[in-house]
Amino acid sequence: xxxxxxxxxxxxIVPYTxxxxxxxxxxxxxxxxxxxxxVWEDYLAVVAFVVGSGFTFISLYKMRWxxxxxxxxxxxxxxxxxxxxxxxxxxxxxxxxxSVGLSKFVLLGFYWRTFGLSIIRQPIRILxxxxxxxxxxxxxxxxxxxxxxxxxxxxxxxxxxxxxPMMSLFGTAVPHLIIECAILLCPIIExxxxxxxxxxxxxxxxxxxxxxxVCGSALASVVHTVALEKKKDKDLTWDGLDDQIWAVCDxxxxxxxxxxxxxxxxxxxxxxxxxxxxxxxRSSSGHSEPSLNxxxxxxxxxxxxxxxxxxxxxxxxxxxxxxxEGGLMGSDGMQKAIAFHDFAPRNEGVxxxxxxxxxxxxxxxxxxx
Length: 369
Description:
Layout: H1 5-32, H2 40-61, H3 78-114, H4 121-143, H5 165-192, H6 198-206, H7 211-230, H8 236-239, H9 241-259, H10 264-285, E1 291-292, E2 295-296, H11 311-320, H12 332-337, H13 340-343, E3 363-364, E4 367-368
Antiparallel strand pairs: 1-2, 3-4
């Protein structure tokens, strides 16, 4: 008998575990910072993860009535399966909305705190507003799915369901994808402007690369919705599984991506130990410097070079090290189910922050000037 339920298990458990580990590591990295205290994004990340945990649980709980198995092979009446499907879908639509929506605020809040002197401050404000509007639109569309609301899962109740899958798709799924791509580009633009070697730029940008996974899951959800809309013979429990898979990936990858940029302080000792091993290999196999009585022999050009650090250099180094501080301080029923998660069956132009910026300081006779 065909069974795709293991696919849902893998899509739910693997990203959820990664998100849970990332969240715990995020809290640990805050405690390793010089000012070990949680900020509002950390509390919001915990709330978003708790809501996302509920969504993941419901996604797996749906398999009790046969999600992932062809409808004809499930030993339950079809009307009972349809009722279970849409009742569970009604619950997880709300959890998806607030879990993914709050994750957007967590990441944007982190950007706002990190890139204090940046040209992307205004785009961050705009994305805050867009994310809030996205949540409001989803809540509105969920509430307007059917009148009365009970008809959404009970076909015997008189009423109507005016929402179509394409309305939901262009109302929430496509905007979700656009917002996620914009959130991904914000730090990349700023990182590329830093006065750093290309290798370091790539290393810093890699900490934000997990946002590509969220964009990928959102894009896959849109593509699946369009493909399912064109399919003539739809199987509610078989074809609808793909929508659930991409939705649960979207939720948990969003949590993972919000915590990943903060994990450097936690993993730095590991990288440092690896670096010590490799440096040991290099020192044992490389040539030693000439010495005289245990002291290095001065050579032409061996004197250390001094370089003045301008404002952009200071800002660049601070931005690269932000993680060290934890931040700088099948039927009509099937038609109705399509895209229900998204939506049915995710100093040039620099704005100065508050506070005092010290560009250079020099100590003369005990006084700083």
